[in-house]
Amino acid sequence: MTTEAAPDMTPRELLATEFVLGLLEGEELLRARAMLARDPEFAEEVARWEDRCAPLLDSFPPANPHEEVWSRIFSATSGDVEDQSAQIVSLAKARDRWRMMTGLATAAAAALAVVVMVGPGAEKSTPIAPVTEDQPLLAANIPIGDTPLRLALTYVPGRDELSVSSAGLTADGVHDHELWLVDRQGDLHSLGVIVPGEEARFAVPDGLADEFVDGSQLVLTREPLGGKPADADAGPVVAQGQFQAI
Amino acid sequence: MDKSPAKQARDALSADIAALAGGEHDALRRIYEATSAKLFGICLRILGDEKEAEDALQDVYIDLWKRADRFDTSRASPISWLATMARNRAVDRLRAGGKVRSGAVSEEAAFDVPDKDIAADEKLVLDERDARIHHCLSKLEKRQQSAIRRAFLGGATYVQLAEKDDVPLSTIKSRVHRGLAKLKKCIEKP
Predict the structure, then answer these.
(1) Which among A39, A51, A50, A52 has a CA at the least distance from the CA of A11?
(2) In chain B, where the domains are located
(3) How many of the other CB atoms lie within 10 Å of CB of A203?
(4) Are A109 and A18 within one domain?
(5) Does domain B127-190 have CATH number 1.10.600.10?
(6) pLDDT beyond 80 at B5
(7) Which segment of the chain is annotated as a signal peptide (chain B) (predicted)?
(8) Inter-chain CB proximity B42 and A60 less than 8 Å
(9) What are the chain A neighbours of B156 within 8 Å (beta carbons)?
(10) Between residues 68 and 97 of chain B, which touch chain A (CB distance below 8 Å)?
(11) What is the CATH classification number for the domain harbouring A100?
(12) What is the CA A205 to chain-centroid distance, rounded?
């Protein structure tokens, strides 16, 4: 929390300004990111202060990057389109294999073990290998507070679905927990509300698949039953972790 | 019809971002030509390393390619939006590399703001409203200015500012809060 609102600034505006200036860390930063994703007024305040502060960057003199930078950008952005069709067949195969194998998995540990089995190390010579080398399977194992419990997540590229296991978790009847992906801009995207003690599949929102990469940050917040209300800020962060390529 | 060169440049840039959002890949090249020197200058000064700065710059344009549809045309300026993206990306890299404490942008560099030389890139020249932040920041107490500049231009957080200045966190927060309140008042003065 910020210590106190500055005179003539609402707490919301102060937080937005602190966020734009990059002063925040830890829970305050996550709170600001959650508000940015869910609170239009806060997002507007952030945009206003970004526009206000951006001219300070004009004090930095322009400089020319090497020409190869454009070549790298060009191939990275053109490649998206060209590679897609080439990968569709392989992705479909990976997806079918994944469906078949995860059908057997009933618990988090089992699901994780299956993912490890079909990971790039074990499958170099199969048709799915080229896909998994570029876009590895991702897993995250998030400890919940001081408990021995963990949230186990797995994501297969091209599948647009996230497998979430919360084995051992129990509902307290008062709160739900909502899972968020923090994108590379720092924005939060809700992935869904955790169903305690169950294996669940969350559909990945449109356009978010690109953000599922090695190192993507994940945050779990405590919310009222049903998840964060549309007109409220996200609740406190109770756990966080990140995806790792496996 | 009587548009200033700055307004024309902004409109062209906004149109290119809209075209990019519509999937026109050529628009990315035009945006790169118009803005890369400015954005690279930002990355370079924040990161203090050419290779790191080029990697950050590359990330900025790849992000732009993916997220051009997120540009809100009602915002004051497309170049402000892009400059902020570049600043944020560079600071992310700085923090990931653990370089903030050593401070790629020194306090002296953060103070090196020659107001009258702002328009280095003529095509994207700022208007008077934009320049207000320079004026208003210069009206703050030296320590308030310093903290705000080191945060925005040097990537320092509250915790790092407190450590560097060897003062309690609450002191640095109060200092910044007072500075921001004054800054807001000055910027919003009619």
Answers:
(1) A39
(2) 1-102, 127-190
(3) 12
(4) no
(5) no
(6) no
(7) none
(8) yes
(9) 22-23
(10) 72, 75-77, 79-81, 83-88, 91-92
(11) 2.60.40
(12) 11
Do A102 and A188 fall within a single domain?
A: yes
Q: What part of A 77-116 touches B (C-beta under 8 Å)?
A: 77-78, 80-81
Assigned domain for A66 exists: no
**Side-chain-facing half-sphere of B43: CA atoms under 13 Å:** 29
**A172 occurs within a structural domain:** yes
Residue A83 falls within a domain, yes or no? Answer: no
Residue A193 lies in a domain: yes
Task: Tell me which CATH code domain B1-102 carries.
Answer: 1.10.1740.10
What's the number of domains chain A is made of? 2
Q: What count of CB pairs under 8 Å joins A to B?
A: 172
Name which of B33, B70, B180, B187 to mutate to probe chain A: the one with the most chain A Cβ atoms within 10 A of its Cβ.
B180
**ipTM of this predicted complex?**
0.87
- Closest residue, chain B, to A54 (C-alpha): B80
**Beta strands across the sheet bearing A161-165:** A199-203, A161-165, A150-155, A138-143, A244-245
Q: Does B3 touch chain A (CB under 8 A)?
A: no
How high is the pLDDT of residue B84?
93
Structure tokens at B142: 């030296």
**Residues B65, A74: C-beta atoms closer than 8 Å:** no
* Phi, psi at A194, each rounded to 5°: -75, 130
Mean pLDDT by runs of 10 across the 246 residues of chain A is: 61 95 86 81 92 90 94 84 41 40 36 36 32 66 72 80 76 79 83 78 82 86 81 78 83
Q: How many CA atoms lie within 13 A of A42 on its CB side?
A: 22
Residues A35 and A94 in one domain: no
pTM here is 0.62
Question: pLDDT for B44-88, tens place per residue?
Answer: 999 999 999 999 999 999 999 988 888 887 776 899 899 999 999
Crossing angle (nearest 10°) for helices A67-102 and B50-67: 60
User: Could you tell me the pLDDT band of residue B29, with boundaries at 50, 70 and 90?
Assistant: very high
* A23/B contact by beta carbon, under 8 A: yes
Tell me: do A128 and A52 sit in the same domain. no
Distance from CA of A80 to the nearest CA of B (A): 10
